[in-house]
Design goal:
With 164 residues, the protein is α/β, with parallel strands linked by helices. Helix content is 38%, strand content 13%. α2 links the parallel β1 and β2. It is globular, with a radius of gyration of 16 Å. The protein starts with a helix and ends in a 9-residue tail after the last strand.
């Protein structure tokens, strides 16, 4: 997702994240960090706002981002619920998406493509991941792999555009 925003020319990117103690957050932030480094940027130089991994958490993160970093051109939310919260706050404040600020999510929840604007996000095969998790849980503990990669697909929709 970070690669997509960087490819659109965004450099003033804020990240709306859940708690870094969550393995999901650590993995997603690592991906963001790698993409940034490939473009000569560092995650440490971007505002990363931690909040609940929920719609309300996304609203809280968006308010903090806009109040403390009003020059951002993109908000990368690390799940779609948070992204919906970000979109809500931007709409409340009269900030146009994607004309003023691009917004992205992660997970491709069912509603993502039906929002206005439709949310650019990363599609994860949740049913397949659930099936794999069950299979792994049924294996003897000593033979379980700790991680298994999942296919993902970037879903570019109307919530992102070139940086202005």
């Amino acid at each position: 997702m970070a690669e997509h925003l960087l490819g659109l020319g965004h450099r003033r990117i804020a990240v709306a994240a859940g708690s870094r103690r969550l393995a999901t957050m650590a993995d997603r932030l690592t991906g963001v960090s790698r993409a940034l480094e490939a473009h000569g940027l560092r995650l440490a130089d971007l505002p990363v706002v931690e909040a609940e991994f929920t719609l309300e958490g996304g609203k809280e993160a968006a308010r903090r981002i806009l109040d403390e970093h009003p020059d951002v051109t993109a908000v990368l939310a690390l799940n779609d619920d948070m992204a919906v919260g970000v979109l809500s706050v931007l709409r409340e404040r009269g900030i146009s998406v994607p004309d003023d600020v691009s917004v992205t999510g992660f997970d491709d929840v069912t509603v993502a493509g039906h929002l206005s604007p439709a949310l650019t996000t990363v599609h994860l095969p949740m049913k397949e991941m659930g099936r794999q998790a069950l299979e792994l849980a049924l294996l003897p503990r000593a033979t379980r792999p700790r991680r298994r990669p999942a296919a993902q697909r970037l879903m570019v929709r109307a919530s992102t555009s070139r940086a202005r």
